[in-house]
Amino acid sequence: MLSVRVVAWGVTLVSVTKAMSGLPGITCSGCRELGAPAAAGSRDAHSDSPPQELQRLAAVPGCDPGRTNDLLLLRPRTQDNSCTSSKHVLFFHGDIQNFQEEMLLHSDCVPWVRWSLEQVGGVLGRRFPDSHIWVVRASRMYLHKFSCYQHFVECNMFGAPEHSAYSPGQGAFCHLRSLLSNAMHCANLPHPLPPPEGPIPPGFSLTLVGFSKGCVVLNQLLYELPGAQADPRMSDFVQRISDMFWLDGGHPGGSETWVTNKEVLKELASSGISVHAHVTPYEVCDPMRAWVGREHGVFVKTLEEFGACPSKKLHFEDEPPSIENHFRVIKEF
């Protein structure tokens, strides 16, 4: 929930955007494949170079042509330089985070360029070396800062969500499956995920990671979970989700930063999905937003009451709350 406090500090919000359609690319199965940007000389001196193997896919459609997201792909590499893994990790970023060259255009974003989407892709590649890493860019960045995942969940201009139940052919699960299927075809991966009516490839598994605002996508998936499991066109896909990671979730709404609905959490506890909750004092110990810490506690306790064993950790608990530590949880989880 970085965005609210950025506004509170009086940071100037710039309204000029750089259209992604202006970047060179080639047509590829309904999406455009863009080359990785060259390293910028003004990049923060403390940031590592993003992996050269990152592939950018622009305007990949989801469950309908009007719902598109840009993605970054980092492929796993084996000793024989092949890409045969059926494991996939999807990351949903928070506010401020964007492609590196976009962040460098705006002075308010430059201090955090070390947490650009390219940099995060490299971090996740080291965390999950045997998996395909997909960094999903929010479909809209309001005022260059506020990540809005409106193709996954209804939200206001600042990205605060309004969660809803599963609707066949719509919603977060439908968009997620179609988006990943189209992206895999666009990237020419072997054994791509087929449309909903097709069989899931053998060995396919999915890990979902949400950071800060990106956790709203994971929360929406939880609200849709009962309906998705009951839908024969979606149930096999849901069963391939092995892990879900919540990393210091936060958004500008006044509630539902963490899911506390007992029926929803009961479904999650019985699903077999491994749940991981990593937080920092920046979110769960903020006295001005005390409900975040309370909701996090209810989320973990309720899952435990239903027999689940969520992994949980409060990072940097002996350090003052800070935005830097908020971002650092991406490296530490």
TrEMBL record:
Establish whether keyword Signal is in the entry: yes
| Highest taxon of the lineage | Eukaryota
Tell me which UniProt keywords the record has, alphabetically. Answer: Signal
- What start and end residues bound the annotated signal peptide? 1-19
UniProt key word Signal: yes
Alphabetized PANTHER family for the sequence: MITOCHONDRIAL PROTEIN C2ORF69, UPF0565 PROTEIN C2ORF69
**Official protein name in the record:** Chromosome 2 open reading frame 69
Q: Which InterPro entries match?
A: C2orf69_mit (IPR018881)
Q: Which organism is it from?
A: Neogobius melanostomus (round goby)
Q: Which GO terms describe its cellular component?
A: mitochondrion
Q: Which residues form a coiled coil?
A: none
Q: Which Pfam families match?
A: C2orf69
